[in-house]
Structures are given as C-alpha cells and as structure tokens.
Amino acid sequence: QVQLVESGGGLVQPGGSLRLSCAASGNIFSINLMGWYRQAPGKQREFVATITSGGSTNYADSVKGRFTISPDNAKNTVYLQMNSLKPEDTAVYYCNADGRLSGYIRREFSSWGQGTQVTVSS
Question: Residue 17: pLDDT above 90?
C-alpha cells in the first residue's frame, strides 16, 4: 500500500559525491520518520541516517559530517547527500518510511524500498 522508490546510486571515485532520492507513494495519511540504511556484501544492514516529520535528524557516527539527510515533505521524498565518499561506503542503500495509512483506522505502516547500489572505487 506504500511504495518507496530510490534513485541516484552509481559508481563514484573516492572523495566524490552522490545524492540519493527516495519517493514515497500510495495510501499515505502521514509519515513520521524516513531514513536510510545500507548493507555491504557479507554484512548486516546498518543504520545511516533518519529524519523525523519535525525535522530532527540522526546520523551514524561513520557518516557524520559527510552525509546530509533532508526532506521534501510536499512530495513525501527524502534525500541523502553524500560527500567525501570512501570505499567503505560501498553498499546497497535502502530507504525506509514509517507512518500511518489513510482511512478510518489509519493503521501504522513501515515500508522499505528496493535499494540502490552505491560503489566507491577508483
């Protein structure tokens, strides 16, 4: 009932930048939290950054000062600006959104995107 579509991944050299986008659509009444997670080969999925509907942000220590999460609330979209990329940032990046569905009951939802590959290599 809620779809998340990520875009913006690709191949970049160390020190370069990428901007990821995640657009949410569907039967959405409200979104409380959107965020980014990543999973490198052979590793568990890990937290990268989140932003609340009020604009509060939280970052993993490994990306603080290099990554910035920002919203476009009118479009139910969140962005991840990634600067000073390192080879260890290589992973599939997943978007997540938590909120409530439209309708009388306004059930809670938590949805994931399909992921976008980010590769940092020279």
Answer: yes
pLDDT of res. 57: 98
Amino acid at 25: S
- β-pairing, 2-7 with 18-26? antiparallel
Buried b (16+ CB within 10 A) or exposed e, 12-24: beeeeebebbbbb
pLDDT higher than threshold 90 for residue 69: yes
Q: Which amino acid is at 100?
A: R
Angle, vertex CA 83, rays to CA 76 and CA 117, nearest 5? 65
Residue in this structure with the two tokens 């999973």, named with its chain if needed: 39
Average of per-residue pLDDT across 40-46: 96
Which of helix, strand or coil describes residue 17?
coil
Query: From CA 11, how far away is CA 25, in angstroms rounded?
Result: 27
